[in-house]
Amino acid sequence: MTSRKRLTPEESRSSALEAARALLIETGPQSVTLKAVAGRIGRTHANLLHHFGSASGLQKALAEHLARTVCETIIEAVRASRAGLGSAREVVDLAFDAFDREGAGALTSWMLLTGNEDALHPIIETIHELVDEIAPEEAEHCGDEQRVHRDTLSLVLLALGDALIGGALAKSLGLPRDAARERAQGMLEASIAENQPQD
Questions:
Q1: What are the pLDDT digits (tens) for 151-167?
Q2: What is the pLDDT of residues 15-25, one digit of tens each?
């Protein structure tokens, strides 16, 4: 009989969140259950109950985990873009991929449909923190802190909508699949150009 490796509470929680994220991406939000996650990581249902309290608690923790990792990636791209090492398209692609390939769009819609809107607070709060971190620096450059908030609102709404119906809508309108990304890129580039410091 082989014994399972004893994990610290942090390792156990992190392992469960990574398994939940993989399930979300592979088979959709309805598969993110305590039982499925426990089976994926070789733990018991009771062990996950101890860490998350309920399936709703697991989903809320997953939303927070996704928000944090997604926003960390986006802020790195924003900083690289500002330093001349990246582009508006890279920021757009990171945001769109977060909601599409990384599962944040599916999780968001699932939380809304199941009446678990409070699970979205971590995503909203993390995005807000990201914007607030960037905004003061942007305000120094262009004098308009609210511009970053407006750009973020537009980018997140476009990315979420694209993750949910972008493919079908673009096809029905005879547009390329990345049409929404192109629009978001154009919007972001126009906003940046409009707010460049004047010499």
A1: 878 888 899 999 999 99
A2: 999 999 899 88
pTM of the complete model: 0.72
Residue ranges of alpha helices (H) inside 3-162 are: 9-27, 34-41, 45-52, 55-82, 88-99, 104-113, 121-142, 145-161
* Spatial CB neighbours of 52, under 8 Å, sequence gap ≥ 6: 13, 16, 34, 58, 61
Query: What's the one-letter identity of residue 111?
Result: M
For residues 45 and 87, the answer to whether their CB atoms sit within 8 Å is no
Residue 117: half-sphere exposure toward Cβ, Cα within 13 Å:
1
In this structure, the number of other CB atoms found within 10 A of the CB of residue 142 comes to 16
Look up residue 167 and give its amino acid: G
| Cβ–Cβ under 8 Å, residues 98 and 62 | no
For 89-118, what is each residue's pLDDT tens digit?
888 888 888 888 888 888 788 878 877 777
How far from 90 is each of 52, 54, 61, 73, 170, CA to CA, in Å? 34, 37, 27, 11, 21
Distance, CA of 45 to CA of 29 (rounded, Å): 18
Question: In the predicted model, is pLDDT for residue 171 greater than 80?
Answer: yes
- Sign, CA dihedral 25-31-35-39, equals negative
User: The tokens 């991406």 sit on which residue?
Assistant: 25
